[in-house]
Amino acid sequence: MNFSLSSLRSLFSSDLAIDLGTANTIVYVTDRGIVLNEPSVIAIKLKNRFSNRVLAIGTEARKMLGRTPNGIRVVRPMRDGVIADFEITSIMLRQFIRRIDRRWAFRKPIIVIAVPSGITQVEKRAVIESAETAGARKVFLIEEPMAAAIGADLPVTEPTCNMVIDIGGGTTDVAVISLGGIVYSKSIKVAGDKMNTAIIQYIRRKYNLLLGERTAESIKMTLGNVCPSLKNPETMAIKGRNLKTGIPATLLITEENIRQAISEQIDLILQAVKTVLEQTPPELLTDIFERGVLLTGGGALLKNLDKYISDECNIPVIIPNHPLTTVALGTGKVLGNIKRYQHALL
Q1: Helix, strand, coil proportions of the chain in percent (round to 5)?
Q2: What are the sequence ranges of the domains in the chain?
Q3: Domain 192-261 has CATH 3.90.640.10
Q4: What is the pLDDT of residues 165-204, one digit of tens each?
Q5: Among 171, 201, 245, 303, which is most exposed with the fewest C-beta within 10 angstroms?
Q6: What is the pLDDT of residues 281-320, one digit of tens each?
Q7: For residue 28, what are the CA distances in angstroms to 115, 186, 278?
Q8: Same topology for domains 5-146+326-344 and 159-190+265-318, yes or no?
């Protein structure tokens, strides 16, 4: 039987690259690529204050949101891009690692984790300790905009300027990168989750209809359009509870409704982009106007967001082929050559 060197290396490799996001956790393994892409959600059965049992993680746990009886908690341990529940995050990571390969529990992997650019020292320590508790031998951190640039094959080590806008579930990171480092960055806690909340509040305020979080996200993914057509807008029938009668009701909404609902969040993201451009040295601005801006993350899937930013800032905006996994792919490249990208690590 013939084995290639890469297949043997992947067989015995235990190291991981993780995009530990508010909405999703994506795991990359050298020579295997992305092996796991699951919602950052865990369901736990409460036994007593000292003992809990994991019922489900990822997609299966997400299906339980808003549907659990007493004694079962469905938790999203990541909030606004950082760890909100240290213990639960460690359990979730351990479960994800075991799902990939149970042997990793004995190998103590090296893990590279992508984190928001605005993360504090306390939050960094929480991520590192959480990964170590989950079984990591050594943990490296890289800022998400840098990982996204590497994942999109931008020349981050060259004396040219690259600008990245990464809109995830909990944070939006905007960064200017040159010579392997971040020249200026801004991270705001406005992203996909805040848009979901805004949709819930808008429908409740305007139509007295109460929606769940999963329904709001589905609406955003279906009708989310920053510049909808006023002549032929897309529509969607949604179901919720009428707050006046208390009974289920169906409502037909349009793209324009959702544009109005998330307009505040879009404006805050645009303001963050303009702030970074204002703080960027003139020599680097020329590169940005010539090369364009990379737009990644789940927010890049909002219809016409790239066009809106381009028109408002007078710069080209480019969306990579796989915006949802660009950060994970970049983190994976760093894992494969830590020495080369050591300057990019926190």
Answers
A1: 40, 30, 30
A2: 5-146+326-344, 159-190+265-318, 192-261
A3: yes
A4: 999 999 999 999 988 889 999 999 999 999 999 999 999 9
A5: 245
A6: 888 899 999 999 999 999 999 999 999 999 999 999 999 9
A7: 15, 26, 35
A8: yes
CATH architecture of 5-146+326-344: 2-Layer Sandwich (3.30)
- Helix axis angle, 86-100 to 121-134, nearest 10°: 40
Q: For the domain covering 159-190+265-318, report its CATH number.
A: 3.30.420.40
- With left for phi above 0 and alpha for psi between -120 and 50, is residue 307 left, alpha or beta? alpha
Cα separation, 268 vs 314, in Å, equals 17
Cα(308)–Cα(310) distance, rounded to whole angstroms? Answer: 5
The DSSP annotation for 273-340 comes to HHHHHHHS-HHHHHHHHHH-EEEESGGGGSBTHHHHHHHHHTS-EE--S-TTTHHHHHHHHHHHTTTT
